[in-house]
Amino acid sequence: MKTLSRIYTWIIFILLYAPIIILILFSFNDAGTLNKFTGISFKWYVELFRDQAALNALRNSLVLAVSSSLLATVIGTLAAFGINKMRSKFLRGVIRSLTNIPMMNPDIVTGVSMMLLFVAAMAVPFSPLKKLGFTTMLISHTTFNIPYVILSVLPRFKQMDIHLTEAALDLGCPPGRTFMKVELPLVLPGVISGLMLGFTLSLDDFVISHFVSSPDFQTLPLYVYNQTAHEVKYSMYALCALMVFVILVLLLLVNFAGKKGEETKPKKSSAKKRRQQMRELLSGKENAQ
Amino acid sequence: MENKKNIIELKNITVRFGDNDTVLDNINLSIGDGEFVTLLGASGCGKTTTLRLIAGFLEPTEGEVFFDSKNMSGVPPYKREVNTIFQRYALFPHLNVFENIAFGLRVKKVKEKEIVEKVQSMLELVNLKGFEKRQVGNLSGGQQQRVAIARALINDPKVLLLDEPLAALDLKLRKDMQNELKALHDRTGITFIFVTHDQEEALSMSDTIVVMADGKIQQIGTPTDIYNEPVNAFVADFIGESNILDGIMVADYKAKFAGHTFECLDKGFEPNEPVDIVVRPEDVDIVPVEKGMLKGTVTSVTFKGVHYEIIVDIQGFKWMIQTTDYCAPDSVIGLFIEPDAIHVMKKSIYSGLIGDYSSYSEEFDELSIVDEDEKEETIEEAKEV
Amino acid sequence: MKKRSFLDTFAAIPHIVWVILFIIAPLVFVVFFAFTDTYGNFTFDNISMLSSYAHIFVLSICFALIATVICLLIGYPLAFFISQCKPSTQKVIIVLLMLPMWISLLIRTYSLMALLDNGGLLNSLFEVIGIGRVKMIGTSGAVILGMVYDFLPYMVLPIYTSISKLDPKLLEAASDLGCSNFKTITKVVLPLSAPGVVSGITMVFVPSISTFYISQKLGGGSFDLIGDTIERQFQNVSTYNVGAAISLVMMILILISVAIMNKFSDDGGEIIV
Questions:
Q1: Which residue in chain C is spatially nearest to B14 when comparing CA positions?
Q2: pTM, whole model, 2 decimals?
Q3: B134 touching A (Cβ < 8 Å)
Q4: Contacts of C244 in chain A (CB under 8 A)
Q5: Which of A279, B352, B378, C212 is the most buried (most CB within 10 A)?
Q6: The complex's ipTM?
Q7: From 1.10.230.10, 1.10.3720.10, 3.30.360.10, 1.10.287.380, which CATH number describes the A62-215+246-261 domain?
């Protein structure tokens, strides 16, 4: 029984990883075909870095990921602070469930609904919004990032000893400075992992971007999608392999930020914490499609 | 103490959470400059709420708080010249000992050199020299307590508020810290307002004790006044051990209870007015049956080290008596009570509810204190939400 | 009353404004577009037109259901096996299980496509063994395989979480009371892990039914699922209203099925397992 279950687990994992590993391997394939591996070569990577459109998409992706995750982190952290201080349980519940809509809804619905909003906004005379592009992408990405920031920051505010805030006020520190000097440093691990999460999600997103973008502002996933719609450029495999690599590095960083915060709360057993983290990640990614 | 001005005055303070949950009910209290005042009461009596009013974390529903004769309504906590020692110290976990103590000065943008000097002298004051760079999480309970005190005192507050600061320490440390706090009070001359549910702590440390129950002040007085002249059955029961009996004031200096008329020192009651009688356990003398004013059967004897604690059944009422003489259980003994051992009180809502030792059990008593303490926290938190 | 500072009161305001503008308003527009024509006049035409898309809905639901069932059949034993490993091993396996979830679904689908392609590695392998080339891209099997491959971790993780939360004493108690290993699993583990199963099913079913990328790339354009249909409507301004109507119906469909699933897990999950 034991061996059987072990073999079963191995098989599943091999099947799960095989396509990705093969993709990465073949991105180095000299022949430029998917059926025969003829030798290691970096020429597809070289070609990729000569591809101006790909580099543009990379730049756009980074600009968008940085700005949307920063914006979401500011709004989300303030929101978590405010939600935590709210007196009315009802109001708190309403805000939290509304916030979670983009997490629960299929991405395609979120994308479509945002697109309709922008289309309607553009139809208004003298509207500041003229066309789909960076602005609309920024708004959309910030919108789906905020719930994840709140998700990772709110528990930190909840766990924080309320007397710490009172102690700071008591020592003559006005609320604004108390937030900067005491509350923010204490929730910082949550803020950082929220920021990283947002950055990763933004970099990853394809479905929502697909609906709110225009050809003159392309991100990497959009670029990959558009390239594969026609004749597949072999350098796309190199691009995909690179993106996998970047995401892995980011994930390690997020984990690291989360681990650092763990030390300040010795109360929770690591197993419990791990499970909670997993649940968070889980609910975090449940709508990647 | 009497000729000093009042630094804090609470006038007609009422605090309600929601519509009908009254936590403080028309409180009036004046605290003199430099006094050591203790707010004493069981959990949920409103003592912590009173402290939070003075600190500025709460606004009263009705009434006003005066500080140095200035009305404090609307003044936020960070603009009040009071500092608080929190129950679990509330040290900032992301700052080391030095930065915790320097916090108030940094907020005021004091010069670095002055900060270093002041923090050093504070560390000296609380016996923590050389601990500057330590992380607060690695300190013992007593050390954290000292950091909390230094962090508050460095701001030169006019009033120091202490919210059950010793509750989290073990017995031995608690005694030491009691002495240290008392010494600190003498040295600094700052007004201390101390909240506790521990009557012994209150008796040994305070200039003035304010006994609270059910959101009302029951009695304000010096420790001796409160112990010797409790105003009602609640105070008598809460401060020290006491036998509280139903009695009748037959005439001035004559009280009738337990089927016997006693000489006493109290007067000024209506003839035959029903009253509560307090007799402290240590004030009862055991004599041979024939010489006793009362006689009863010993139901239990507990050795307490300095004395024996015996429970005596007299006509169905269980008395507690502390004596150095051993009496065998089930023996019949006589009791003798001096006139000055009898204290007569007016009837109150607490009459008849407390005072009999028939269901007495020590362990139970202590357990319930700890339990209620936690409860108070959660109740208050819940109310504030 | 407890005092509140300016910051306490207003910190959440930017977020609340954001929610109203960019979460609620867009959904209102979906409803608005679903009930108007291209000129903005109120109409039921878009909704009544949906009957012509009925076969697409049926096909999508079938595909999503099959993928969900396969994920459950593969994922449940896997989750159970993982929960029986040493804690340190469990940690590693869970991280390995979560990693693919973070790699863009686009890329994972793409990698699967490269593998299954007519000129792909699998087919050249088949040729070597002598089976000969098999056309895989464009079959319903490939689309379902894509869904299973993409969403399997979403099934395993919640089930694993609920199994690992079970008190090991419960299992001991069950065997103590005379349950065989098999009986312990069916009588104790299965019912108690029902909440995990429910959320696993939701987490696979919802993205499966709304996908358009998988069916486009692996279906080779021969299958039209709800996602594809919606996506196509939004390529052309004149069909936005129909697209909004389809989106609205899909959203309601998903809401109802999620509600039903949660109801089941509330009344004791035996019904599901």
A1: C1
A2: 0.81
A3: no
A4: 112, 116
A5: C212
A6: 0.85
A7: 1.10.3720.10
